[in-house]
Amino acid sequence: MSELPRLILQDIPDYHKIDVYMANGGYDTYKKAIAMKPDDVTNEVKKSGLRGRGGAAFPTGLKWTFMPKGSDKPKYLAVNGDESEPGSFKDRQIFERNPHQLIEGIMIAGYAMDINAAYIYIRGEYHKWVDLMQKALDDAYSKGLVGEKMKETFGNNYSIDIYVHKGAGAYICGEETSLMTSIEGDRGYPRYKPPFPAQRGLWDMPTTVNNVETISTVVPILKMGGDNFAKIGAPGHPGTLLFGVSGHVNKPGVYELPTGTLLTDIIYNYCGGVRNNKKIKAVIPGGSSMPPLRGDEIEGVRMDEDSLKALGTHIGTGGIIVMDEDTDLVKTTLRIAHFYHHESCGQCTPCREGCGWMEKILHRIEIGEATSKDLDLLISVANNIEGNTICALGDAAAWPVRGFVTKFRDEFEKAHGKRSSADTLLQAS
Ligand SMILES: Cc1cc2nc3c(=O)[nH]c(=O)nc-3n(C[C@H](O)[C@H](O)[C@H](O)COP(=O)(O)O)c2cc1C
């Protein structure tokens, strides 16, 4: 276990402090980057095969190439640290344990795309992480590493300003277009795409939105070279991931491991197995919006996007939620549906109404007032939300509900059968 690559969460005491970070080579990779041409920096990221860590696993280098070149418009980078999805809690480890790597990653990304200013968007309730990130940024500014003074410090003509932006506490604000609306000072409503952020982003200017972990990973990529990074982990989705493991394991927490690590290895070796040696009933592999796997499906499953996609689910944010044999999956699904109903911004009818209906139907099943048609109705509502909304919150709501009902239909049938007096009444009438 000791030979595992540590690209983000270092075991060095006080690594979050600027002096310790710099004593260990911090901010030297930026020097390496500015000795290269900006396009070569982007090419290195492309070569690395880095895919976004914010949920969709989109190729990062490719995304950077969407930014217009040679334009005199200001360009922005929005760094997404909203992290409001249940089961996702890895980015705050970066704010807490390695904020300077994030700043250095922003500088490198900024140089590659000729960005004028970057906003690190952190969910409003996360006061502690907002304060820690702001402190790190203040320290970087006072050492002349960021802002106008960095030109002098690094002997280069490029400079970037970086701001910590506190969100107001809404899951929808993690969606990239809402995040930009929120930074602009409006209510966090998603916008239609196209135009994509690189065409029309913050204040209608070209913008790239990347996750906190994605940007932090750019530093080791530049340090070791894209080709070497591409050799770590799963070939189609290389590098390490910060897996946030929660639920019924003995040692929940955030584990940095190569992509492609076996799910059972994470649960049984790193997380010390399931509490009280219970069997596993279900695992959500990438945050609450992802379809679950049944306990009998997890053997041999590798934690990378391509492997999970082949099983009908996704890596998402790498937030693994483990549920033991005693978990009431009707209640779990109802709780998840409640979250998405609560967080739907209400702009699109299929999401606004559909999320409400899914919650209502699940509630009927839970209290024993469902009819025999309700399970199919639930799946039909989920199918009608998916793909019919401006942003992917609708999909995020539909996927786990459809996944649980389909994979654990017996349990839902039993719940409704056990309490089916209303059903009998309805059928009799
Ligand atoms: C409802 C919703 C919430 C999201 N929340 C987050 C989030 O908290 N953090 C994040 O990085 N991406 C989140 N995303 C994905 C972003 O829209 C975007 O794809 C991501 O920030 C891009 O970064 P990446 O390419 O580095 O992964 C969310 C998407 C949706 C639909």
Describe this structure in words.
The chain is of the alpha/beta class and 429 residues long. The protein has three domains: 18-231, NADH-ubiquinone oxidoreductase 51kDa subunit (Rossmann fold, 3-Layer(aba) Sandwich); 234-324, Roll (Ubiquitin-like (UB roll)); 329-428, de novo design (two linked rop proteins). Helices cover 45% and strands 13% of the residues. It is built from 19 helices and eleven strands. The chain has helices at 18-23, 28-34, 38-48, 60-65, 91-97, 99-113, 127-142, 150-154, 176-183, 212-224, 226-230, 263-270, 305-309, 329-343, 349-367, 374-385, 393-407, 409-418, 421-428, and strands spanning 76-81, 117-122, 161-166, 207-211, 233-234, 237-238, 240-247, 253-258, 280-284, 293-294, 319-324. Mean pLDDT is 95; it is low at 420-429. Flavin mononucleotide binds at residues 52-56, 58, 63, 80, 82-84, 171-172, 174-176, 209-211, 214, 391-393, 396.
Helix count equals 19
Number of strands: 11
Under CATH, the topology of the largest domain is which?
Rossmann fold
Number of individual domains: 3
Content-based structural category: alpha/beta
Low-confidence stretches: 420-429
Gap from first CA to last CA: 64 Å
How much is the average pLDDT?
95
Helix content: 40-55%
- Corresponding CATH superfamily of the largest domain: NADH-ubiquinone oxidoreductase 51kDa subunit
Query: What profile does the largest beta sheet have?
Result: 5 strands, mixed
Strand content: 5-15%
Shape: globular
Instruction: Label the CATH architecture of the largest domain.
Output: 3-Layer(aba) Sandwich
Radius of gyration: 23 Å
